[in-house]
């Protein structure tokens, strides 16, 4: 499907990738990694659409540069971090809420996020009441916000050997949020769910996806 444009509460206009049936029973906002709305994020959205969701992926980098779709080499990582740095978390939340509002009215709405988007999904759960469920995959900023109170059921996924999210941070999250469904994947690194990264772990990615789908089906029933 072609990209659409949506408008955040502060007037910012951003692009979004939309996929899935408009009359699906449930909707999802997918929050991107630091690589933009690239082919991987579109493929992720298409997988959720195939599972019966209406899905929207807001272009969170549009506040600094439009049309960003990076790869996964070292220069791309540096560029992604550079693009993310000036974006205020509150403005990102506004973009996510605009995406949620763009889903058809009446359907249960969840949010799933990866990498940077994993943290964004946590903020969506704790800093808004727009979602009925949130699944956060390897969100590096969650530990710093672990004491916030979620307004919906939350599920989290972390790789045991993630060099950017130490297990001490994961344990701190677990201790602060005993009600969160938290999974750690033995031997998996950061980005284990991305089939375009060297850290891709097919078995762990498949398990995490199935857990996410099962969780969303329960929470958004």
Can you walk me through this structure?
With 221 residues, the chain is α/β, with parallel strands linked by helices. The chain has a single domain (4-219), classed as Alpha/Beta hydrolase fold, catalytic domain (Rossmann fold, 3-Layer(aba) Sandwich), CATH 3.40.50. The chain has helices spanning 39-50, 74-84, 89-102, 116-126, 167-176, 202-219; strands at residues 4-7, 13-19, 26-31, 53-58, 108-114, 133-137, 154-159, 181-185. It has an eight-stranded mixed beta sheet with strand order 1-2-4-3-5-6-7-8, sandwiched between helices. A hairpin with a 5-residue loop joins strand 1 and strand 2. The longest helix is centred in the C-terminal third of the chain and has 18 residues, at 202-219.
How do the strands of the widest beta sheet line up side by side? 1-2-4-3-5-6-7-8
Helix share, percent = 25-40%
Rg from Cα = 16 Å
N-end to C-end Cα span: 26 Å
CATH class: Alpha Beta
Task: Please state roughly what percent of the residues sit in beta strands, choosing from under 5%, 5-15%, 15-25%, 25-35%, 35-45% or over 45%.
Answer: 15-25%
Would you count the extended β strands for me? 8
**Mean pLDDT metric:** 97
What is the strand and helix layout of this fold?
Blueprint: E1 4-7, E2 13-19, E3 26-31, H1 39-50, E4 53-58, H2 74-84, H3 89-102, E5 108-114, H4 116-126, E6 133-137, E7 154-159, H5 167-176, E8 181-185, H6 202-219
Parallel strand pairs: 3-4, 3-5, 5-6, 6-7, 7-8
Antiparallel strand pairs: 1-2, 2-4
Describe the structure in brief.
This protein has 221 residues and is an alpha/beta fold.
């Amino acid at each position: 499907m072609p990209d659409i444009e949506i408008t955040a509460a502060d007037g910012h206009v951003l692009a979004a990738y939309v996929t899935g049936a408009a009359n699906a029973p449930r909707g999802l906002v997918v929050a991107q990694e630091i690589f933009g709305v690239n082919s991987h994020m579109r493929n992720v959205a298409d997988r959720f659409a195939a599972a019966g969701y209406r899905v929207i992926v807001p272009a969170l980098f549009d506040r600094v540069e439009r049309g960003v779709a990076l790869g996964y080499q070292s220069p791309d990582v540096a560029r992604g971090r550079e693009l993310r740095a000036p974006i205020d978390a509150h403005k990102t939340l506004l973009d996510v809420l605009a995406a949620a509002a763009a889903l058809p009215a009446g359907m249960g709405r969840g949010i799933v996020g990866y990498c940077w988007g994993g943290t964004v999904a946590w903020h969506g759960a704790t800093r808004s009441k727009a979602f009925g469920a949130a699944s956060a995959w390897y969100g590096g900023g969650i530990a710093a916000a672990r004491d916030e109170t979620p307004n919906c059921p939350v599920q989290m996924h972390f790789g045991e050997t993630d060099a950017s999210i130490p297990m001490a941070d994961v344990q701190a999250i677990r201790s602060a949020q005993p009600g969160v469904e938290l999974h750690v994947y033995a031997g998996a690194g950061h980005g284990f769910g991305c089939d375009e990264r060297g850290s891709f772990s097919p078995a762990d990615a498949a398990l995490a996806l199935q857990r996410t789908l099962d969780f969303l089906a329960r929470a958004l029933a």
